[in-house]
Amino acid sequence: MGVPMVRITLNRVYAVRDQWSLSASGTFNEGVHFVSGDVGSGKSTLALMMAGLLPLSGGDIEREEITTSMLSLQFPELHVTGLSVAEECASWGVAPDEILDAIGLTKKKEAPPLSLSRGELKRLHLACVLAKDYDLLLLDEPFSSLDCEEKVKLCARIGQKSQGICVIFTHEQNILPRVKRIWEIVDGTLVDCGAPPDAFTHWHHVPPVIKKLTALGSRPDNISPDDFLEAVCRIQG
Amino acid sequence: MQDPRIRIAAAAVLSLAAFMSLHGAAAVFLWWLVFTPRLQLAKRIRLVFSLILMIAFFSFALELSGGGGLSYFTRMTVIVLIGMWLFSEQKSGEFLSIGVWLFGDRAGFELGIVAEMGMQSLVSVTADLDRIRMAEKIKGMQWEVRSLVPAGLVLVHGALARAEDTAELLAVRGYQHGGTLCPKFLTRPLDIVAGTFAICIFIFSLIPVSEFFILYQ
Questions:
Q1: Please, what is the Cα angle at B111 between B105 and B116, to 5 degrees?
Q2: Do residue B150 and residue A83 have CB atoms under 8 angstroms apart?
């Protein structure tokens, strides 16, 4: 008998709010998925629906072998429940010393979490979220408020995840992790673009660097900076 | 109600009427039943139930300590219902239009913009509160009294940060004072009817009804 596969399937799911609507169908298997879309297209709404935190206007979501799930909201301050940074780490069930050492915030252990800068708070939040393994990990705009160096570290950390489904909802276009499948929200509908690199041909939100490299005859294999570098090296021989 | 001038004036006189006397509050409640979408509003503004619960708690304490709790509860609940109606009918830009219509392009514009920012802040705080409750659920925490302190801190912090951002944005755009606007209002016949009834209720609330009954006896 094989290992049971985690899977989440959206069956004609839709959300309606005043003049705005979102519909989504598709299956997310194990691996890293990338969901792109314009600001206000419904990425956060979709993330909330997949996490089971927002009632669906219609359709249903099937979760197979998913026993643990986590959603990281776009704004890290909304997650804050601790009155100090150490207390905040503890509220996520992780040891403060280890986490704070890893992200360089040891000196701020006793500081109120809201006294941290947005970038520091985001680092703290992501470190707490990524310290555990989940069958379903939903990251809503994980790259916002991070500088390039931190974005690269986050990509590496996501790349290390060997099990479960990880869905990244973002409009970030430059520093991204290697992904298994690309999705996008276009005109209120979730579209499965497929696996990279074939997905690039019909991906509306394809990053400019991929467009440029493809025009130069060297299409990258995936969407990470390493893939872009490899494609550049191919051009230069 | 389409005309924001009549809506705000009606809300003001009805709130006063409900506050001043119990029979005034009863008349305002009837007005609310006739002229507003009632329960549809309550579904949209879930905070109302928490507010009414809070009023009930204070009313109970008042009743125990010296009486008058029931009257307080009735009057305050009716005021909350009027506030809920006013809040739900409000559309972006209306305060600015009313400010300019009342006090002109300088003081009116500034008052209007402050009121608009206040309303926007209220909408953001409500949205933030929903997300905070979701975030607590994500952590596997129950929403309880202890949650109020960190949630309150996050809400206040968020409101201050947004106010600072708006102030910076206005400064960057070179805003100093006042502004120009040509306010336009749409007045429907039903608005005038509802407004007239609101004034009648206000006058009715000033009549000492209980004394009238004593004289009659």
A1: 110
A2: yes
* B89–A contact, CB cutoff 8 A: no
CA B35, CA B77: separation in Å to the nearest integer?
17
Q: How far apart are CA B106 and CA B110, in angstroms?
A: 6
Burial of A28 (0-12, 13-18, 19+ CB in 10 A): buried
Q: How far is A81 from chain B (nearest CA, A)?
A: 5
Across the interface, do B138 and A78 touch by the CB < 8 Å criterion? no
- Determine whether the interchain pair B141/A70 forms a contact, defined as Cβ–Cβ distance below 8 Å: no
**pLDDT, tens digit, for every residue of A56-72?**
999 999 999 999 999 99
- Which residue ranges make up each domain of chain B? 1-90+187-217, 102-185
CB contact under 8 A, A79 and B139: yes
Tell me the two tokens of residue A137: 């990990």
Q: Are A228 and A213 in contact (CB under 8 A)?
A: yes
Q: Which pTM was predicted?
A: 0.80
Q: What is the mean pLDDT of residues A162-168?
A: 92
**Domain annotation for chain A: domains and CATH numbers:** 7-68+133-199 (3.40.50.300)
Q: Which residues of B touch A75 (CB under 8 A)?
A: 131
